[in-house]
Amino acid sequence: MFPNIPEFCFIDKLLKDSAEFRHDVPKQRDWLGVGDDCAIFDGWLVTKDLSVENTHFRLDWSTPEQAVEKHIVSNVSDISAMGGVPKIALLGLCLNKNWSLETRNRVQVAFSQGFAKRGIALIGGDTVVGDVGMFSTTLLGHLAGDRPLLRSAVQPGDNLYVNGTLGKSGAGLWLLMNHPEAVAEFPKLVEYHLNPRIAEGAGAELARQGAYGACMDISDGLSSELNHLAVASGVTLQIEKDLLPIDPDVLRLSDRYHLDPLDFALNGGEEYELLFANSTSNSIFEKSKGLGEVCRIGSALERSKAPDVRMRNQNGEFLPVQPRAWSHI
After folding, report:
1. CA–CA distance, 15 with 10 (Å, rounded to integer)
2. CATH superfamily of 151-320
3. Which of 203, 192, 79, 216 is CA-nearest to residue 137?
């Protein structure tokens, strides 16, 4: 029985509906340091993401539930990108001192239910109060297959793929910042930015199919993630402008406001879907429900001491794809 102290009661409610803490251990005992979407220690995939109020979420745009879900997805996508399944979470919560009791309670319920519905056991953490809200999750998972999906695994001749459509989150953010009066006209873009829905098991599905190519999630923008893959694998990558699956609503928004949809597709960020490289036939991905919609966007070329990324446009011209990652520093 917890003492009748507000913090203890809050933590008690947060933990009581947690998924069962199962005593299972990874089948492989790999070790991997920094450089991929997750580190690996003694077989455990481990990642950590932060979400800070007014930087990653705003409660005048999002509901507490949307802010929490987006934070959880940002962590789950890292585990997915390594070919893993999330299992255990440690949660750090800084509650804004100006949040109402209702908002605090909604955040607590959203985390409790958000982890539990994914089978993630919440085993500890910390709770404080401060000037802004902040969520910090350390998430651990198991590999779904025999080995991890690594950024360094691109081979010359591999095809490049993305799952889902591109540009939604960046376009939704642009709309909120520049034309909030038009939010109701593009609800899918705004909803995706505030509460992205992704194929959370896509990386594990790749591993189960034996598709052990390179993989990473698209959190900082496709242009940056492509360059990450190129450098990590020491290869030149080529994408085709005509093959990029730009979301139809992004095209519609761009036409309405005379914007370049390619900028959203390449540099928008916070997509959380997967970019992956593989030599496997396209048909294996097209038939898999666990991967969602998959689209080939290009291929890996030769090994290079100066790896780079280029894009071929409709005229056959090759243009460099420069990394334009979102940076908080």
Report:
1. 9
2. PurM-like C-terminal domain (3.90.650.10)
3. 79
